[in-house]
Design brief:
This protein has one domain: Up-down Bundle (Four Helix Bundle (Hemerythrin (Met), subunit A)), CATH 1.20.120. Helices cover 79% and strands 0% of the residues. The protein contains eight helices and no strands. Helix 2 packs antiparallel against helix 4 and helix 7 packs antiparallel against helix 8.
């Protein structure tokens, strides 16, 4: 498979790369969440990041620029940014340890599984809808933490519990999907 300059620097891939770079300002912004202006800027950067995530997928499909690199960099950007935010929130004691470890371990398992599957099948599997819903739910929990919505808020509690359930279900879904693709490839090669 030959990767050309045109396939690397698509509009959608550039948006994904920009989202990946957002991890740097997040690290520093989260340090000062107690300052209302910083909290607002952090929230705005979160919304901008979510916008690039939606827009890059749309542009890739709209302009027929879905690439293997895009299938890698888009979820990687999501995982890196969320991991940076989660690590910083954990360091600042704004999220409990078990929640931190659930997110980090889930993302590492999905990343390692994705690399294994890509090597086994010779192509990258795109994210599935359940994984995207899980990431959106985790992002909403993070946004509420940034906005300093307390754990006693009913909406926060619902989203928080739902995110834990979705992490478990989506990880299981990715595992089942991976085994199905491997089994199908092994069956097709016989």
């Amino acid at each position: 498979m030959k990767i050309t300059f045109k396939k690397i620097f698509t509009k959608s891939n550039l948006l994904s790369f920009s989202r990946l770079l957002m991890a740097i300002p997040f690290w520093f912004l989260l340090e000062n969440l107690q300052v209302p202006e910083i909290r607002f800027i952090t929230f705005a950067v979160c919304i901008l990041g979510a916008g690039t995530d939606i827009l890059d997928g749309y542009l890739a499909r709209r302009f027929n620029e879905v690439t293997e690199l895009g299938k890698i960099i888009d979820p990687l950007a999501d995982k890196v940014v969320i991991s940076v935010i989660i690590i910083k929130l954990f360091i600042l004691n704004l999220i409990p340890g078990y929640y931190f470890y659930m997110i980090i371990i889930r993302d590492l398992l999905i990343l390692m599984g994705g690399i294994f599957i890509a090597n086994k099948l010779g192509k990258v599997l795109p994210s599935n809808i359940l994984g995207k819903i899980t990431v959106v739910n985790i992002a909403l929990v993070i946004l509420l933490i940034i906005l300093q919505v307390g754990y006693t808020n009913i909406i926060f509690r619902i989203l928080y519990i739902l995110s834990i359930i979705l992490m478990i279900v989506s990880l299981s879904g990715y595992a089942v999907r991976a085994f199905e693709f491997i089994k199908r490839k092994n069956y097709d090669s016989i």
